[in-house]
Amino acid sequence: QAPDSFPPLRNEAAVRVLRGRMKGIQGHCNSCYMDAALFSLFSCTSVVDSMLFKPFPLCDRNVQSILRDEIVTPLRKTGFVHAGSVMHLREQLTEKGQCSSFTNAEKDPEEFLTLIMQQILGIEPLLRLQSGGQEQDCYCYQIFMDKQEDLVVPDVQQLVERSFLSSELKLVEIPSCFIIQMPRFGKEYKMFSKIIPSLELDITDLLLDSPRECCVCGDVATLECS
């Protein structure tokens, strides 16, 4: 029997289903990196729903069904996912990824996304970046930047732009999906106490060879000053 599929939550439905106690994805044994990534990817957007349904060439159907039926469907249906469901996924990732620490240790979200998207589901990379004339493919972008005193409570737009600038990066093409990991922090140090979500992201200045307006004369720009 085909499982029920539920669309991502939007507007009033998202507030009604996701707000309150015992909502979201239950944490257990350092699962926060995976819980946050799964919630961001699936609760309120369908942009990566192909991960749930599409039979990719290398796709592991068992992992795909766990992800779809035990995590995403209950999250969208009731707003709550039991820690046991995430542990079931972590056990499968441990088996497929040949890494025993997926069930008990905190990992980098990028490591989790690369494992599940590339090795288990066989999805093509979502991003093409260029730096110093060299291109690289990846599944998400992690913001790296030095502490900047003028940024007290930044928004995502500011962080992405400054991170690209400091790393001399450009997007080779408009990405089908732009997964961004905020600056890392631990118990002892936090770079920013808060980050304001940008509900829209303007990537015009981040695109390689994208025609843009000159800020002086208004014509098509021929030079770019960092």
Automatic annotation (TrEMBL):
<dbReference type="InterPro" id="IPR018200">
    <property type="entry name" value="USP_CS"/>
</dbReference>
<dbReference type="GO" id="GO:0005874">
    <property type="term" value="C:microtubule"/>
</dbReference>
<dbReference type="GO" id="GO:0005819">
    <property type="term" value="C:spindle"/>
</dbReference>
<dbReference type="GO" id="GO:0004843">
    <property type="term" value="F:cysteine-type deubiquitinase activity"/>
</dbReference>
<dbReference type="InterPro" id="IPR038765">
    <property type="entry name" value="Papain-like_cys_pep_sf"/>
</dbReference>
<dbReference type="InterPro" id="IPR001394">
    <property type="entry name" value="Peptidase_C19_UCH"/>
</dbReference>
<dbReference type="Pfam" id="PF00443">
    <property type="entry name" value="UCH"/>
</dbReference>
<keyword id="KW-0963">Cytoplasm</keyword>
<protein>
    <submittedName>
        <fullName>CYLD hydrolase</fullName>
    </submittedName>
</protein>
<dbReference type="GO" id="GO:0016579">
    <property type="term" value="P:protein deubiquitination"/>
</dbReference>
<feature type="domain" description="Peptidase C19 ubiquitin carboxyl-terminal hydrolase">
    <location>
        <begin position="24"/>
        <end position="203"/>
    </location>
</feature>
<keyword id="KW-0493">Microtubule</keyword>
<keyword id="KW-0378">Hydrolase</keyword>
